[in-house]
Amino acid sequence: MLGFLILTLIVGFIFYEMYWKRRHLPPGPIPLPLAGNIISVSVLHPPGYDAFINWKKEFGPVFTYWMGPFPTVIIADYETIKETIIKDGEKYTDRFTTEATHQIRGGDFGILETSGDNWREMRRFTLHTLRDFGMGKNLMEEKVMSEVTSLMDRFTLLKETAPQWEFDVAVGSIINNLLFGYRYEEDKQAEFRELKNLLSDHMKNIATFSVGMAFTQPWTRIIPMFNGL
Questions:
Q1: CA-based angle 128:132:137, to the nearest 5?
Q2: Checking CA distances to 137, which of 3, 9, 154, 223 falls within 20 to 30 Å?
Q3: What do you get for the CA distance between the two ends of the chain, in Å?
Q4: 70 three-class SS
Q5: How far apart are CA 2 and CA 8, in angstroms?
Q6: % the chain with pLDDT above 70
Q7: Taking 80 as the threshold, does the pLDDT of residue 157 lie above it?
């Protein structure tokens, strides 16, 4: 009798985790109990780009995947993003955050991972400041076109080059020139390479199964392999 009860509870738990909890959400990949779709993103298709591309092809431009126990609705279509997140951005003030994120940041800071009134104020301040810098105006277009001209000149002069690196430097130069007033000329490219490597390492480190579980399932931190991540 006890064995039958335990088996019933296990079957019920699996049914809830893999099917029942998804019933009111957009379609998406079946989540595993506890882990959700973290394995697909961090183990099978690290750091996750191919997983999202495959899910878009299978489920359409709006789908749900699970970060452990947390559902995440993905909008992977420009027009839909424009109609929802951009034109109706105020509805997205309640944003997903985790206890681990707050611990690492030392509080509810930044733009990407703040929520409510704090996020709304940060968004308003950021947009206002960027407009003062020229975003959406002719000045911004001039900065972009100036960088495009410089990029084309480099392609003309260099006999051998890595196109991806040159495009990365050009985009980085536009952003850095806007914020800090200088481009990544030859003597500054070591700085750009260091920043790019730090960002790349950051993405690789957080896009792992163990970190995903530690962020979404706090109880896993009592397990040695997750403790301290």
A1: 105
A2: 154
A3: 42
A4: strand
A5: 10
A6: 97
A7: yes
Does the structure show a pLDDT above 90 at 141?
A: no
Q: What is the mean pLDDT of the chain?
A: 86
Residue where the block lists tokens 């699970």: 66
Q: In the structure encoding, which two tokens stand for residue 196, read together?
A: 């790019």
pLDDT at 212: 85
Q: What's this model's pTM, rounded to 2 decimal places?
A: 0.70
Q: How far is CA 51 from CA 42, 63, 118, in A?
A: 9, 12, 32
Do the strands 70-75 and 62-67 form a parallel or antiparallel pair, or are they unpaired? antiparallel
With contact defined as beta carbons under 8 Å apart, do 178 and 134 qualify? yes
Quote the CA–CA distance of 42 and 98 in Å, as a whole number: 19
Q: Answer whether 33's CB lies under 8 Å from 13's CB.
A: yes
User: What would the DSSP string read from start to end of 91-155?
Assistant: GG-S----HHHHHHHTSS-SSTT--HHHHHHHHHHHHHHHHHHTTTSHHHHHHHHHHHHHHHHHH
Distance CA(67)–CA(16), nearest Å, equals 16
Tell me the pLDDT tens digit for each residue of 101-127.
Answer: 777 777 777 766 677 888 888 888 888
Which residues have a Cβ under 8 Å from the Cβ of 29 and sit 6 or more positions away?
37, 40, 55, 58, 59, 63, 65
Which among 30, 4, 11 is positioned nearest to 19, based on CA atoms? 30
